[in-house]
Design goal:
The complex is a heterodimer. Chain A is of the alpha/beta class. Helix content of chain A is about 35%, strand content about 20%. Chain A is elongated. Chain B is α/β, with parallel strands linked by helices. In chain B, helix 1 packs antiparallel against helix 3. The N and C termini of chain B lie far apart (about 55 Å). The relative contact order of chain B is 0.11. The chains are: A alpha/beta, B alpha/beta. The interface between A and B is large, with 68 and 74 residues. Strand 13 of chain A pairs antiparallel with strand 14 of chain B, so a sheet runs across the interface. Chain A: This is tRNA (adenine(58)-N(1))-methyltransferase non-catalytic subunit TRM6. Chain A: Keywords: Nucleus, tRNA processing.
Chain lengths: ~500, ~300
């Protein structure tokens, strides 16, 4: 219950959640920022995807440069505007009750300090200006031609760490701090223009105070997950996902069969391409399909119409009439899940809900704690992402799949000749392919993604031996970003060496 | 028949992909007559390495089934954008599926999107655009080559896609796009994309995206400079993607056994090194593959309205 303490300090928690349940909000502008909507927040090259709540803060940076930025200023505005974060005035600090995460007392980042509190104000300048010119060098600063006279002896900067901290504590703006740092540096004048720019880019990470809110899209989500937690999405790189959608011939009015446990990213991408027309039957193991990425898309009821879920257990056991005892047991468990889900929907906070969203076993203990322990380098960001991206947006996206839904899905599965099959899971794809491929209509595509080539080779050999696939390929991709700057255009220094493998072909029956 | 709305039986007027092998497949228009080189209509026969056949024999066959040829057989496949890209008649250089996929993905296209494309070229990317924006969006595609625009228009008609595309003959550098609806995305594949930037600014909606495809880095450089100078584009990124198509084969290697033969000590006779055949399945990359296609640049349009 403690987690539910937000700024409004509603200890009952109930009111908090009800007020932030999306859909029912008055004035929920279709294309603007409002409570209950997922938004992408960017500061410099840092990116977050959060569930927007105007009475909460978003944290960038850590230690002395930590900024807890109150989101209120952005509420009700449209996307793609620039906001400036500035130190909160005393009256805001006084009225702000910091968000306390008592469930994780070991997290240092929970120490909210008033000097870290920032407020958002819509930037008066156009977004391009605000983003590109986060800091304008003072006119007095010149630049050098090369680095022959620059020595790395730690003597060039006169400001010490505690000087800067004390400036911050006095509420001095980022711009003024940077001015001080630069003018008190003996070597900054000797740096080349390019080196100065690079230096400022680094400083932007710490002192950047321009925030931009964007609407989540599949390309942003795919990029975001691949950069921050590739393991979660099985190493599926954006370029590979883009091809998966092409080769599976995803389009409106198509009926697709999807096996996925890739955070719901693929189901989300398919739903996005269906635009509310057609069907996407999501097959999964267990009663809780993964939907962490899917919920971030702010899909409407209309968008979600094509989505159906099928627990593979139902597929295995057949329809209700011949269900065995074991099946019954499984059902009881699922029913319990549903009841808990419904009862607690209005009581529980994201943390608790997320557990139900996490598929499979081990959901009892918070799986993220584990994770945070391992990824200590970006512990804060990691856990924030978890909390923020796994909120159930509404009742229509309930975590548990009930028996009735499964029976409907099973009937649909049995009576439909699908227009395409996608397999992308942690499980070896061969048995899945053997089970699902025959459900395709003749001359329709199948696409299997796997991080490793060997399982796909097994599938390839099976398809070839059975003679049920034509036009079968096993491909992988090379993908690179290019830095384009006048006189400094070159491929980016780092690139991803592997984006996984795709096996695709056309089903031609036996 | 339509590329998008799948049917299961081949009818007259359909475009069918005759699939003989991975390296050997053709698009066939199922018509009684076809134009020969001299512009006269003749009976539509199709020649393959397994002999020729009368194209009308395809009518009534089921898509995805075997079709018997005089000296072998082939599969008749329903057309898809990907198969079309692989088999279409080239009137220009074309964009292939890996780039097409990234372009559509990066532009965040979905049903309902309004897309502007210049130039149309051979229509490889256009087909994929239409598939994605169908059934509520629209593609406006332009080419400054009148014949090409005309051929593309005919092709879309034949492929049952004409309700979702408007083909224009127009030089967009001098004349702009003249599309009334604000577009969600503009795609440029022309030699000097930077010269079109002002027209793009007039055509895109706020938050809409621009994508350019250029083979040369100098083109990218100039485009990015023009976009930055305009002051109305953010989130610029340039990417390139190459696909490698691997074959799966068995390979055998000889494994040498370096254990000393025990009989050697007793007999005093030298025993040659024992060899064992070790068979494994592996991925074989192609001997040659595309090393470059084009740079794909994305930008998001946010018109600069100052608050102050």
């Amino acid at each position: 219950m403690e987690i539910s303490e937000t700024k409004t300090s509603n200890s009952s928690g109930n009111a908090v959640v009800t007020s932030s349940t999306p859909g029912g909000l008055p004035g929920a502008d279709e294309d603007g920022i409002c409570d209950g909507k997922y938004v992408v927040v960017e500061r410099g090259d840092q990116q977050r995807i959060i569930l927007f709540k105007s009475n909460q803060t978003i944290t960038f940076g850590k230690g002395s440069t930590q900024q807890d930025i109150l989101l209120k200023g952005a509420s009700g505005t449209s996307f793609l505007n620039a906001f400036k974060a500035s130190p909160a005035p005393p009256e805001v600090i006084a009225s702000h009750k910091p968000f306390k995460d008592n469930s994780k007392p070991w997290k240092k980042s929970n120490k909210a300090r008033p000097q870290n509190l920032f407020v958002l104000e819509r930037s008066a300048e156009p977004i391009v200006k605000s983003i590109n010119e986060f800091y304008q060098l003072p006119d007095t600063i010149s630049s050098g031609t090369d680095n022959r006279n620059i020595h790395d002896d730690n003597s060039s900067q006169a400001m010490k760490k505690h000087d800067i901290i004390s400036l911050r504590e006095q509420g001095v703006s980022s711009k003024e701090i940077l001015d001080t740092i630069i003018t008190s540096s003996k070597s900054f004048n000797q740096k080349t223009e390019f080196a100065q720019e690079k230096y400022l880019k680094k400083k932007e990470k710490i002192y950047g105070d321009v925030l931009v809110f964007r609407k989540p899209s599949i390309s942003i989500l795919s990029d975001y997950y691949f950069k921050r937690d590739p393991v979660k999405i099985l190493g599926l790189r954006p370029d590979t996902l883009s091809q998966l959608l092409s080769y599976a011939n995803i389009h409106a009015h198509g009926k697709y069969l999807i096996f996925e446990n890739c955070c719901g990213l693929i189901v989300a991408a398919v739903l996005n391409r269906l635009g509310g027309y057609g069907a996407a039957l999501h097959c999964h193991i267990g009663s809780n399909p993964q939907r962490q990425a899917l919920v971030c898309m702010n899909f409407t009821e209309e968008d979600l119409k094509p989505m159906m879920n099928l627990d593979m257990l139902y597929l295995l056991r057949g329809s209700g009439s011949n269900l065995s005892v074991e099946k019954g047991d499984a059902d009881v468990i699922q029913d319990e899940n549903i009841t808990t889900g419904e009862e607690t929907e209005s009581l529980e906070e994201p943390q608790a809900k997320k557990q139900k969203l996490e598929s499979g076993a081990g959901a009892e203990s918070d799986p993220d704690d584990d994770k945070n322990g391992k990824d200590s380098c970006n512990e804060n960001e990691q856990s924030e992402m978890e909390e923020e991206t796994t909120f159930v947006t509404s009742r229509k996206l309930r975590a548990s799949n009930n028996r009735e839904d499964n029976e409907t899905s099973l009937a649909f599965f049995n009576e439909t000749e699908f227009d395409g099959l996608i397999i992308c899971g942690k499980e070896h794809p061969l048995t899945l392919l053997q089970r699902l491929l025959p459900r395709l209509a003749l001359s329709t595509p199948f696409v299997i993604y796997c991080q490793h080539p060997e399982p796909l080779m097994d599938c390839y050999v099976w398809v070839k031996e059975k003679g049920i696939g034509a036009n079968v390929y096993l491909v992988d991709n090379w993908f690179r970003n290019i830095q384009v700057e006048t006189e400094r255009t070159h491929p980016e220094i780092n690139m991803s060496p592997s984006g996984g493998y795709l096996l695709f072909g056309t089903y031609i029956g036996t | 028949m339509s590329f998008i709305e799948r049917t299961s039986i081949i009818k007259e007027g359909d475009t069918v992909i005759l699939f003989l092998s991975v390296s050997n497949h053709y698009p066939i228009e199922v018509t009684k007559y076809k134009k020969n080189k001299n512009g006269n209509f003749v009976e539509n026969k199709f020649q393959t390495i397994y002999g020729h056949f009368d194209v009308m024999e395809l009518v009534g066959k089921k898509y995805g089934t075997k079709f018997h040829l005089p000296r072998g057989w082939a599969y008749v496949l329903h057309p898809t954008c990907e198969l079309w890209t692989k088999t279409l008649p080239h009137r220009t250089q074309i964009i292939y599926t890996p780039d097409i996929s990234l372009i559509i993905f990066g532009l965040d296209l979905a049903p309902g999107s309004i897309v502007i494309e210049a130039g149309t070229g051979s229509g490889s990317l256009s087909h994929a655009f239409i598939r994605t924006v169908y059934p509520t969006g629209h593609l406006y595609t332009f080419d400054f080559h009148e014949k090409r625009a005309e051929q593309a228009r005919e092709e879309f008609q034949k492929h049952g896609l004409n309700s979702w595309v408007t083909v224009g003959h127009r030089d967009v550098i001098s004349d702009g796009f003249d599309v009334e609806k604000p577009a969600d995305a503009v795609f440029l594949d022309l030699p000097k994309p930077w010269e079109v930037v002002p027209h793009v600014q007039r055509s895109l909606k706020r938050g809409g995206k621009l994508c350019t495809f250029s083979p040369c880095i100098e083109q990218v450089q100039k485009t990015v400079e023009a976009l930055k100078k305009s002051g109305e584009f953010v989130m610029l990124k340039t990417q390139e993607v190459l696909q490698r198509s691997n074959s799966i084969q068995y390979r055998t290697m000889t494994s040498l056994d370096f254990a000393l033969d025990e009989s050697e000590a007793s007999t005093g006779k030298l025993v040659p090194i024992k060899k064992e055949q070790c068979k494994f399945r592996t991925l074989i990359p192609p001997t040659q593959t595309a090393g470059h296609t084009g740079y794909i640049t994305f930008a998001t349009f946010v018109p600069g309205v100052s608050l102050s």
